[in-house]
Design brief:
By secondary structure, this protein is of the alpha+beta class. It has helices at 7-18, 78-87, 138-148, 204-213, 267-281, 332-340, and strands at residues 2-6, 32-37, 41-47, 51-58, 67-70, 72-77, 92-97, 102-107, 110-115, 134-137, 163-169, 172-178, 182-189, 197-203, 220-225, 229-234, 237-242, 261-266, 289-294, 299-306, 310-316, 320-323, 326-330, 346-351, 358-362, 369-373. It contains 6 helices and 26 strands. It comes from Fructilactobacillus cliffordii.
Length: 379
């Protein structure tokens, strides 16, 4: 196996697949990068058993300046190989595999020889049905991930809650996550209807990694589903993730249908006030802040308290207040996470009672995006 390639373009391709490679794995060969050279292109593969990423280096793309002298497969130690390629001196890079998988890497006057592994020992990637792909606008899907992954559980005691629950009915995609203290739900109308209904839970960590890869992606991505795997394809890249097994809890009953008190804020203003109040609450053992609402006087007060450090109290300027008087305490970090994903818009915070979960929704299109937070009992 032998090929030469533009080094900088190759570094970009390596960076894509390295996202899936971990030094901590129970399968030693997965610390390696698989390079599969065919007559006209190179396929790079990285995996950590939970996610796998493949990207194609096409000989038709002039940016790669790719010349293939002989074909073959090899698994190389990902970290060492990548560091070597980054530090080589010249524009062109030559990779040649000799006897016993010894691999020579040349650029300019620099030459490295590293030991590779037989690619036949690399696990096969899962077979995923590609008959009926689901088309997703990349920008919208990245937004959905960002708005829901914040409420994914970090506790492995309930593995199903470490993922985002996606249901797809024709062209309506519903994404829900909860860690049992808060919930995030986003609804999206897709441009094209899917064939059939889907109900899957994708690990939050997998989706975070996918979201980072979609930063520069403007076009649609395709989602392919099988019994226990999901495959996302975009550009020259394929991103595989396992699905979580089990039934996701019915979260629809957690969202209240009515409220007693409503307050409207500009999300950035409320976020800034919560951040100030949490400066002291973080010093307290229970990390709680309190919101006091008096609709008659159109006054909303936020209070943070730490017995060891001191107290902060701030009167807020809501756009609108209605309903009954209320005092409610909650974890400020949950509200900060929720407000950050709304961006610079007006939101409505709706309360049922001091001990019932409250919701944060955009003032416009309220049914499409809901964040729910459970209060803290302080008495």
């Amino acid at each position: 196996m032998q090929f030469s390639i533009n080094r900088q373009a190759f570094i970009k391709a390596l960076g894509i697949v390295q996202r899936a490679i971990s030094a901590k794995t129970t399968i030693p060969i997965l610390t390696g990068l698989m390079i599969d050279v065919s007559a006209s292109n190179i396929q790079l593969t990285g995996s950590n058993a939970d996610i796998s990423i493949q990207t194609l280096i096409s000989g038709d793309n002039p940016d790669y300046e790719l010349t293939i002298s002989s074909t073959g497969k090899i698994v190389l130690p990902a970290h060492f190989f990548s560091e070597i390629v980054k530090k080589l001196p010249n524009r062109e890079l030559l990779v040649e595999v000799g006897d016993n998988f010894q691999t020579t890497i040349k650029s300019g006057n620099s030459e490295f020889t590293i030991n590779g592994l037989d690619a036949n020992g690399y696990p096969h990637l899962p077979e995923v049905d590609s008959e009926h792909p689901i088309q997703l606008p990349a920008e919208i899907f990245r937004e959905v991930i960002g708005q829901t992954v914040i409420a994914v559980s970090k506790q492995e005691s309930r593995p199903i809650l470490t993922g985002i629950h996606f249901t797809l009915d024709h062209n309506q995609l519903l994404a829900v996550s909860t860690d049992s203290h808060r919930l995030s739900q986003r609804k999206v109308e897709l441009p094209t209807a899917a064939e059939g209904d889907y109900n899957v839970v994708i690990p939050g960590e997998s989706l975070k990694e996918l979201s980072r890869m979609l930063d520069s992606e403007k076009d649609a991505i395709e989602m392919h589903l099988s019994e226990n795997q999901v495959l996302f394809t975009f550009g020259k890249t394929r991103f595989y993730s396992r699905l979580l097994e089990g039934n996701y809890p019915d979260t629809s009953r957690l969202i209240p249908n009515s409220s007693e008190t409503k307050v409207q804020f500009a999300a950035p203003d409320l976020l800034a006030a919560v951040e100030r109040a949490s400066l002291l609450s973080h010093e307290s053992r229970n990390n709680v802040i309190k919101l006091t609402i008096n609709p008659d006087n159109q006054v909303v007060t936020i209070t943070g308290n730490s017995p060891d450090v001191g107290k902060v109290e701030e009167d807020l300027s809501p756009a609108e207040v209605s309903g009954a008087d209320l005092e409610i305490s909650f974890n400020p970090d949950y509200l900060k996470d929720a407000l950050q994903v709304f961006g610079p818009i007006d939101v409505e915070v709706a309360f049922t009672s001091a001990l019932r979960p409250f919701t944060i929704t955009p003032v416009e299109n309220q049914e499409n995006f809901i964040q729910l937070i459970t209060p803290v009992r302080t008495f």
